[in-house]
Amino acid sequence: MHPVLQKAIVTHHLSKEELIQVLSDEIPFEEVCAAADTIRKKYVGDDIHLRGLIEFSNICKNNCCYCGLRRDNKNITRYRIEPDEIIETAKQAIQELSLKTIVLQSGEDTYFSTDRLCYIIQNIKKHNVALTLSIGEKSLEEYKAYHAAGADRFLLRIETTDKEVYLKNDPGMSWENRIQCLNWLRASGLEVGSGSLIGLPGQTIESLADDILFFQKIDADMIGYGPLIPHPDTPLKNIPHGSFELAIRVMAATRLLLPDINIPATTAMETLHPNGQIIALKSGANVIMPNVTLTAYRKNYELYPGKSNTGYTPKKSYDELVQKIHAIGRSVGTSCGYRMKVKKNES
Ligand code: 5AD
Ligand code: SF4
Predict the structure, then answer these.
(1) Which of 106, 170, 310, 330 has CB 3.0 to 4.6 Å from 57, enough for a Cys bridge?
(2) Which residue has a Cα nearest atom 4 of ligand 2?
(3) Ligand nearest to the CA of 137
């Protein structure tokens, strides 16, 4: 095994230069994936946690250059699912598919006030599941209110730690505020999820190494990566899509440095590669987020084109997934799948 991988497996610490080696072609792809798979098995086992994703509003006040939901995109049908219907969708997913976590995701839609969100959270939590929110930048008070209402986790991707690249691709947004939000999330008591896009214009291997070191510094509980897939109704429509292999490498390197966290095999990976999620699951990932949004809404939640499984019913997506999980000798997690912090090298 390459000495840098050997070091990562034993110490879970690498310098930026060493990380860059892991992310570049210097170390064969398969070796990096295999090392991450070993660490995944050692720290989080063979269970794959399924988190049922409900995309409850595609209305967004932001204008991210890569995203199909951006405010200036007039080519999509906007929708917003009312609180009681969100609660009903969650209830059905929990009962029909035995899911142990519900993830509520939306654009930054101000209709969903703290009161409305807390009402939704309290009602879903009656079903004895973990609840994750992925609804963007809020205040510390709001994050605390969600936690007090029963929410367990929150996903907020930094997208990139390279401030210049961030500002170019997320016009009108503040990079400092995004970092602040991640700190507030930590202070609120919620589990903190983050992650990056792979393939933003101007992004480098160096900055991806910085991203991983940043996630290690903030002690993130979950990290997800998506290769950027250009959307035809956005300013980035003509850029090449992000590299699938690089996204997997970054994900595998993250498993090596943050061995006990939750890492999803993301839908964007599956969209770019027909076997993308399975490759991810064999390269460090231990989570999948099956979409349980009603089919009628789902087609309009087009962050990027070709989002895998659009048009399938939740049950069909779920059954397919379980089959895939068993086919690679893994099991479906029966717990809520919180991060179980493991003392490094004493496990
Ligand atoms: N390709 C891939 N991922 C995207 N996201 C938004 N637009 C795209 C795209 N074109 C991701 C962002 C965001 C998450 C919800 O979706 O990283 O955080
Ligand atoms: Fe809105 Fe999120 Fe899309 Fe940005 S990435 S436009 S914040 S939905």
Answers:
(1) 106
(2) 64
(3) 2
Distance CA 77, CA 59 (A): 9
| Closest ligand 1 atom to 227 CA | 2
The letter for the amino acid at 17 is E
List the pLDDT tens digit at each of the 347 positions of the chain. 999 999 999 999 999 999 999 999 999 999 999 999 999 999 999 999 999 999 999 999 999 999 999 999 999 999 999 999 999 999 999 999 999 999 999 999 999 999 999 999 999 999 999 999 999 999 999 999 999 999 999 999 999 999 999 999 999 999 999 999 999 999 999 999 999 999 999 999 999 999 999 999 999 999 999 999 999 999 999 999 999 999 999 999 999 999 999 999 999 999 999 999 999 999 999 999 999 998 889 889 999 998 856 567 778 778 888 999 999 999 999 999 999 988 765 44
Orientation of helix 3-11 relative to helix 29-44, angle to 10°? 10
pTM as predicted: 0.97
What phi and psi, each to the nearest 5 degrees, are found at residue 147? -65, -45
First to last CA, the chain: 22
Any ligand 2 atom below 6 A from CB of 65 = no
Distance CA 124, CA 108 (A): 21
Nearest to 230 by CA among 204, 210, 201, 267: 201
